[in-house]
Amino acid sequence: MHVVLYTRERCCLCDDARQLLAKHGIIANEVDIDGDQTLCERFNTCVPVVEIDGRVRFRGRVDELLLRRLIDGENARATSRGEP
User: Fold this and answer.
1) What is the spatial distance between Cα 12 and Cα 58, in angstroms, rounded to a whole number?
2) pLDDT tens-digit map of 35-81
3) What is the CATH number of the domain that holds 65?
4) How far apart are CA 13 and CA 43, in angstroms?
């Protein structure tokens, strides 16, 4: 599962999202949107944004129950493909 966490400095919800992802063993590629004008225009008022396997799954607060379901679904798919 490839996860990108779009953030910005001094963002409490970004800190919460980072901690929640870590709690569930997810290591996200973190991107500060302020360093990229295109990302700033796209995500300016809705950080954090969590993108999983190329799809935006969360904007703002991350729903832990939905995150758990996404993780469980990915684990089930990996198991059916014979991956550990």
Assistant:
1) 15
2) 999 999 999 999 999 999 999 999 999 999 999 999 888 878 777 77
3) 3.40.30.10
4) 14
